[in-house]
Write a structure and sequence with these properties.
10 helices, flat, 9 strands, five-stranded parallel β-sheet, alpha/beta
Length: about 230
């Protein structure tokens, strides 16, 4: 009888307690989910022609983030210049060694200065523009402008655009520029420019030789027979 009486008694409602505990435990997950839905601006990547329209028709301001060397060679008229990288003049042993290696290779062949990240970049930009300003960020290859845009986006800037592949991809005459070279060539300096000119001359000579042999084979054969090697 005792077994029958025990079977007829109501069983404890433990499952309901367990469910309540589980609900309490998942509450923090809702908080994490809300944090992940933070709204951020998206950087707009465009070509040179569309960039010109943003400046002329929508009031975007050009912000050049290249180093001073490239900026001095050529830049868009009436632009603002806040370099993302500045010349590294530190004199600790490690920096001196790195600067020496750089100057003997990249500096010699490409005419690039030894630089470091500008610690005041965001501060300088904020000193000239509000976060709702329309900014067209430009650099030579498109990498520095992208990095600069990401930094400004994190600081609350909402209207940011970059030229895909940078100024080197912009067609000549798209923007009015100032400087000793064209915007597209502002990144070229050092021995690379000399090598490029030599290659162009040699290429022209070879093409002319090929055309001469093709259209004037008899004269070309006579010249070869007259040469010391013949």
């Amino acid at each position: 009888m005792s077994g029958v009486i025990c079977s007829l008694l109501p069983t404890p409602r433990m499952p309901s307690v367990i469910f309540k505990t589980n609900r309490a435990r998942i509450t923090p997950c809702k908080t994490v989910q809300r944090r992940s839905t933070k709204i951020r601006a998206e950087v707009n990547f465009i070509n040179g022609e569309d960039a010109k329209k943003l400046v002329e028709e929508e009031g975007y301001v050009v912000l050049d983030v290249r180093d001073k060397t490239q900026y001095d060679r050529a830049h868009i008229k009436s632009c603002y210049h806040v370099p993302l990288f500045i010349e590294n003049k530190d004199n600790d042993l490690s920096t001196i060694i790195k600067r020496t290696v750089h100057n003997n290779f990249s500096g010699l062949f490409f005419g690039l200065s030894f630089t470091k990240l500008n610690p005041d970049f965001v501060k300088l930009v904020k000193g000239q523009f509000s976060t709702d300003s329309k900014l067209l960020l430009v650099c030579q290859e498109g990498l520095r402008s992208t990095a600069a845009a990401n930094k400004l986006e994190e600081e609350g800037f909402q209207n940011l655009s970059c030229i895909t592949s940078g100024l080197q991809s912009v067609k000549p005459g798209t923007f009015n520029s100032e400087g000793s070279s064209e915007l597209q060539n502002a990144g070229k300096a050092g021995l690379v420019t000399v090598q490029g000119k030599i290659s162009a001359v040699l290429g022209t000579v070879l093409i002319c030789a090929f055309l001469f042999i093709t259209f004037f084979p008899e004269q070309a054969e006579k010249l070869l027979q007259m040469s010391p090697a013949g």
